[in-house]
Amino acid sequence: MMIQMADLNILRKEGSSCTELLECFYGLSRSECDAFYILSGKGEATLDELSALISRDRSTTHRLLQKLVNLGLCYKEKVSLKQGGYVHLYKAASISKVTELLEGRIKEYISDINMLASKIEPDLVEKVGRQKEIFGKTQ
Questions:
Q1: pLDDT digits over 45-95, tens only?
Q2: Across the strands, what pairs with 101?
Q3: Of 27, 70, 93, 117, which cross-links 97 as Cys (Cβ 3.0–4.6 Å)?
Q4: How far apart are CA 78 and CA 62, in angstroms?
C-alpha cells in the first residue's frame, strides 16, 4: 500500500488519533475502524452478530472482517457447535499487538522514505538532464 500525501496530512491536523493512523497506514475506512473498535470492545463476535452491531449486510461485514484478518488486526477461530457444525468467531488482536504492528509499519515507511530521500539528488539530476537533452535537440 502506498501512502499518499493527502493521507499523511490527516495525521498533521489537530486532534488526530489512532483512527487516522489506522486509516493512513492500513488503508482502513472510518467504518472499518469503527468495526474494529466494536469487535475489540465486545471481545468476540460471529459474522451475524457483528453485522447487526455495525448495521451492515453480511457480505459487507465479511469483506471487512477478511481485510482486518489479513492485516493481522483481528483473527477468526472455528468453534464447533454442540448440535453439530461450526461457527467462526472473530476476535480483535490485543491493543498491544495492534500497537506493535502499527509501530512496525511506521518504521518500515520511515526507512523507505529515508532511502528515497538519499537518492533524490541523483534522481533529479538524471531526470532534469534528460529534459535538457530533449530541449537542447529541438532548439
A1: 999 999 999 999 999 999 999 999 999 999 999 999 999 999 999 999 999
A2: none
A3: 93
A4: 15
Burial class (CB in 10 A: 0-12, 13-18, 19+), 64: buried
Q: What's the whole-model pTM score?
A: 0.77
C-alpha cell belonging to residue 123:
534522481
Task: Return d(Cα 126, Cα 76) in angstroms, integer.
Answer: 50
Which one-letter DSSP state was computed for residue 15? T
The identity of residue 36, as a single letter, is F
Cβ atoms within 10 A of the Cβ of 81, count?
A: 8
Q: Residue 133: which pLDDT band, with cuts at 50, 70 and 90?
A: confident
DSSP annotation of 13 = S
Q: Please give the single-letter amino acid code of residue 132.
A: K
Q: What is the DSSP string of 55-71?
A: T--HHHHHHHHHHHHHH
Q: For residue 5, name the pLDDT band (cuts at 50, 70, 90).
A: very low
